[in-house]
Amino acid sequence: MGNGALISLEELNRLMDASLGDSRKEPEFFRALLGAILYAHVPLNDDSERLRLVMFTSPVDHALTIPVFTDKAKAEFAARGNVRIVSMPGRLLFEATQGASLTINPNDNWCTLYPEEISELLATGTVAPIQHDQFEEGEAACFKLSRVPPSLVKALRKSLTTIRSVEFAYVAGIKWRQADRPDSLVIALGGGTHSAEREVRATATALHALFERLNQPVEMLHFDSTGAKPDWIQQLGLKPVYRRRADQLQPASRYN
Fold first, then answer.
1. Which of 66, 69, 154, 186 has a CB 3.0–4.6 Å from the CB of 219, allowing a cystine?
2. Could you tell me which residues come within 8 angstroms of residue 169 by beta carbon, excluding any fewer than 6 positions away?
């Protein structure tokens, strides 16, 4: 994609299909979005000199998000004549909408890119790959670490002050039943039920470079901070490595 060349729609669709089948390939697809022509909606009658994009409320976390489309046909189908369509290179669109969440192809196999991920994508060309796994009962057991890696504690305390809805963070170890599977670290985030996905992904984005240096697998869990702590946290007697203070509240983005 050198010399300002753009990603073709054919190549973008190939990368998108690959990412749908394997979440580890999502960063490659997201990086390709920067070099592709993307489409968005603007109000039908708008004489403002500023770019004003149409937004909608996400059914996942009830936050405002901007619908973005990878081809004009998808954008036209969603518009139904009620809005106008604008097109621009993905990098330009991402730079113009920093602070907003973007939902890619909301009427298809959609995905949402959160502000933290977009900032990381623009800065480094990549985002943290996220794999959604379910723990089977008896598959693993959590244990209390003799020492939580100081670099992890420092990074969590620094990054979580900017992720406004996270209230607590705990760190423990996981021992797997499979003998050939190494022990893992687990980070348990306590926050809002509607913002669980964003909290996990924003934290993973902020810490993924550190995760690679730790040379140990890291799992992330989420629980509702307004309810009781998960049983395993209470049974292990874990103390939070991070607890939000009232003076750590951050001003909201103009987009959410």
1. 186
2. 156, 160, 187, 188, 189, 190, 240, 241, 242
Q: Are 191 and 229 in contact (CB under 8 A)?
A: no
Q: pTM higher than 0.85 for the full model?
A: no
Mean pLDDT of 166-171: 95
CATH architecture assigned to 140-248: 2-Layer Sandwich (3.30)
Query: What are the structural domain ranges in the chain?
Result: 9-124, 140-248
Half-sphere exposure of 253 (CA within 13 A, CB side): 16
The DSSP bridge pattern shows strands 168-176 and 242-243 to be antiparallel
Distance CA 142, CA 253 (A): 37
The amino acid occupying position 45 is: N
Asked if residue 254 has pLDDT above 70, the reply is: no
Mean per-residue pLDDT for 110-123?
A: 89
CA–CA gap between residue 29 and residue 38 (Å, rounded)? 13
What angle, 0 to 180 degrees and rounded to 10, lies between the N-to-C axes of helices 26-34 and 9-21? 160
Closest CA to 221 of 190, 254, 178, 181: 190
Q: Is 145 exposed, middle or buried (0-12, 13-18, 19+ CB in 10 A)?
A: middle
Compute the distance between CA of residue 115 and CA of residue 191 in angstroms, rounded to an integer.
Answer: 18
